[in-house]
Structures are given as C-alpha cells and as structure tokens.
Write a structure and sequence with these properties.
13 helices, 381 residues, Rossmann fold, alpha/beta, elongated, VC0802-like
C-alpha cells in the first residue's frame, strides 16, 4: 500500500499520434517541478504517477502549477486481488465525510472478476453501512469515491484542479517585455500556458528607477518560473536612450519612440536566444501608446510576430488573472519602472509616422542600441 499523486493531462489527449511526444515533455516538466522532494515520476496506462515525495502538500502545490497538468488527486495504491481490503480502504477514506457520495469505478483490467457497475454497487453499499452521515447521489455528489482497477487498485476522493494548457517548450519560444506592472506578467503567463518557453527583457533606467524596482521585476519572473520551469531575464540599461529621446525628440512622441527602441532591442535579444516572437502586455486603448495606430508604429520596427494576449481585455479582467497567478501583490509594490520616466503631458494618440522618423533621425540609433545590448545583464530565475 502506497500514497501517491495521480496526475491527469487534458488537451494532450487531442494530439493523436503526437501524444507520446507531449507526454514525455510533460513528465520532464513535472520532474523539474518536484526536484528536491525525493519524488519519482512515471507514466503507465494513460496516467502519470508521482511517488516517494517527502511532503504531500508541497508536491501538490508544485505539480498543479505545471502547464499541461489538468488535475491531480492524492491517491492510495494497493493490490487489487483482495476486494475486501479495497472496500475497507474505501470505508476508511470516507469515514469522516458528511453529505452525498457515489462510487465511480473504472476497470481497465477487463479480466478482473467484478465489472464496474458491480464494484460501484458493492463498495457503495459497504460505505453506507459504515457511515450513516452519507447518502448516495449519483447525479451531483459532494464526494465521488474513485476506484481504478489497473495493474493495481487506485483509490481517491479529491480532485485538485491545475493550470491546464500545454507543456512548456512544445510550441516554440518567445521573449516577453517584462515591466513591473500588472499586465506584462499576465501576458507572459498566458502565452507560456500554450506551451511556449519564455524568457524576458526588462528595461532599467537607473538612477531614475531604483534597484528595488529591478528586484520587483525579478520577483515577478520568479512567480512565472514555477510554471515555466525557469526563466532567463535580460536586464537592459535604458537610461542613455531615454535621456537622448527626451532631449532630442518631440515631447508628445517620446513614449512611442521609447517603445520602438524597446522593441528593437527585445527583437535582437529574442533572435540571439532563438525565439520566434515577442510578447507584450498591451491592450487596446488602455494608455495613449496603446491606441491601434500607436501599436502599429511600434510593430513596424520589428520583423517577427508580436503576441498581445491581453489585447481585448479590460483592466478588471487583467487584475483578476494577476490575482489568480499570484503576481498582483508584487505588481502593486510602489517601485516605478522606466515607462513612468519622462512621461509626456500630452502624448500622441494618433501619431504620424513622419514625425516619429523625424525624431529618430536626431538620434544615433545603432550606437545607442549596441551600448544598451553590451550593458545587458542576464539573470536566471
């Protein structure tokens, strides 16, 4: 008899002949997540099992954050041959429950001497006899008592929902422009959930933004790294570029020109890291630099796809997701990022490209970009 975690995957079932590739990727990510707990992860007969962990709650917390995991159940593995022992264990698992239940038996071993309906009936009868605080509800029970008959018998009551999605790395890689705000961590999380391995670029404007602001961004990356199985963060010095833009470009265009330089630098880092796209946390109309025309001017400077998963979200929806993924509290810390430095009083909402190009012509663009790249610091979290 052994305690274990039974891990389910969801969307991977749809992958047909490619399913083994996705399952192998998911197992690698689960093994990465439970490292240090002494756990063993393997797959058998369509189920992933985690055994030998030192801390059940910690193991559940880690596995449920792995993209590709649909749900987990703390389960008991025992020999299936002694049906009376299986019944006794089902009674033990339900002895403190109150409300309604039903037994849900699955018999993948078709040679087993009882079929699923017979198991349901017999185990359900014995539970009712042992616990008068329970009643049967086959349609909407409070507690489904699951019994799976495979090479062994597996019993469990709880099903804990996980993040879902696809295993990280099975759908390419992309670079996230990560600020200290609410939006960009949510955007990165949403794209990573689709199986995309992400790294991040953060623009740091010291001394106008503090080291605490930098540490705040690294804390956000650490939150994302639980599901992404590690992230590289490139911290790019941006003060020189911002000062040059502030001094030489039209005030109402400074934010847009700054964003264009961020995109150029992020694209170079993305290509250096073998990434295929950029990710931003922009949504239409949230601020002046996120009007449709403004977004078009920033996209014009890069030659790779730009993913904006929040493009149609309103702020309350973004905040709800940030709360769900546990980044909201960090994002709300009062340490400003570089986007708040030299903010124009009346930013252009319908920018004209000729004005932008005229402003950028006053800058030594290539030299500024190269010095920023040369000063970039890579931090693994």
């Amino acid at each position: 008899m052994q305690n274990l975690l039974l891990v389910r995957y969801g969307e991977i079932f749809l992958k047909g002949l490619n399913r083994p590739y996705f399952i192998r990727a998911l197992i690698r990510k689960i093994r990465y997540a439970v490292r240090g707990l002494g756990a063993e992860v393997n797959v058998h007969d369509g189920r992933i099992f985690v055994r030998g962990f030192s801390d059940l709650d910690e193991c559940i917390g880690r596995v449920t954050k792995v993209f590709g995991v649909y749900s987990v159940s703390p389960a008991l593995e025992m020999p299936k041959e002694d049906f009376n022992a299986v019944c006794d264990q089902a009674i033990e698992m339900t002895k403190d429950l109150k409300g309604s239940f039903k037994v849900v038996a699955r018999r993948s071993d078709k040679r087993y001497f009882m079929n699923s309906p017979a198991i349901n009936e017999e185990v359900g009868y014995r539970i009712l006899q042992a616990n008068p605080n329970l009643k049967v509800d086959v349609h909407n029970p409070d507690y489904p008592v699951n019994i799976e008959i495979r090479d062994m018998a597996y019993l469990y009551v709880k099903e804990i929902m996980a993040v879902g999605g696809m295993p990280v790395g099975t759908n390419g890689s992309a670079t996230l422009l990560l600020s200290g705000g609410i939006d960009s961590p949510v955007a990165g999380w949403m794209i990573a959930k689709r199986g995309v391995q992400i790294n991040a670029v953060h623009f740091h404007s010291y001394p106008y933004t503090s080291d605490r602001a930098k540490e705040k961004v690294l804390d956000l990356a650490r939150k994302l790294s639980f599901s992404c199985c590690g992230i590289k963060v490139f911290v790019v010095p941006f003060t020189e570029i911002q000062m040059a833009i502030h001094e030489k470009c039209p005030e109402e265009y400074t934010t847009l020109i700054m964003r264009r330089y961020m995109m150029r630098i992020a694209e170079r880092i993305a290509r250096q890291e073998g990434c295929e796209a950029l990710i931003t946390g922009e949504s239409i109309g949230q601020v002046a630099s996120q009007t449709m025309r403004a977004l078009g001017t920033t996209d014009a400077v890069v030659d790779m796809p730009v993913f904006r998963p929040l493009i149609g979200f309103d702020k309350s929806e973004i905040i709800d997701t940030a709360r769900k993924i546990d980044t909201l509290e960090i994002s709300n810390l009062p340490y400003e990022d570089c986007c708040t430095v030299f903010t124009p009083r009346h930013p252009a909402t319908k920018p004209k490209m000729e004005k932008i190009l005229e402003g950028e012509a006053r800058l030594e663009s290539e030299e500024l970009i190269q010095r920023a790249l040369d000063g970039a610091e890579m931090i693994r979290v």
